[in-house]
Task: inverse folding
């Protein structure tokens, strides 16, 4: 079971790490698009399309994780008086 009472420092580190991964995936997407545009081989075109779709799915997943973490932080903070 996930511990929901983590110290704030760990939550910040987790958000930082997710944000870092998000930027890395974005760079990978950009690189895959460049390679897609440069290739003439039909097999490589298919491979790059698959790679771009995979990276986009990963990007969206990580983005949703960041949003969820930020919402959790807001809900927990909002509940305190």
Result:
């Amino acid at each position: 079971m996930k511990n929901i009472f983590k110290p704030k420092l760990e939550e910040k580190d987790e958000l930082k790490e997710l944000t870092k991964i998000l930027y890395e995936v974005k760079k990978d997407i950009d690189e895959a698009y460049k390679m897609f545009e440069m290739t003439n081989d039909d097999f490589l075109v298919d491979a790059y399309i698959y790679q771009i779709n995979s990276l986009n799915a990963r990007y969206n997943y990580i983005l949703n994780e960041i949003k969820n973490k930020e919402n959790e932080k807001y809900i927990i903070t909002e509940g305190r008086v």
Summary: The mean pLDDT is 85. The helical segments are 8-38, 42-79.
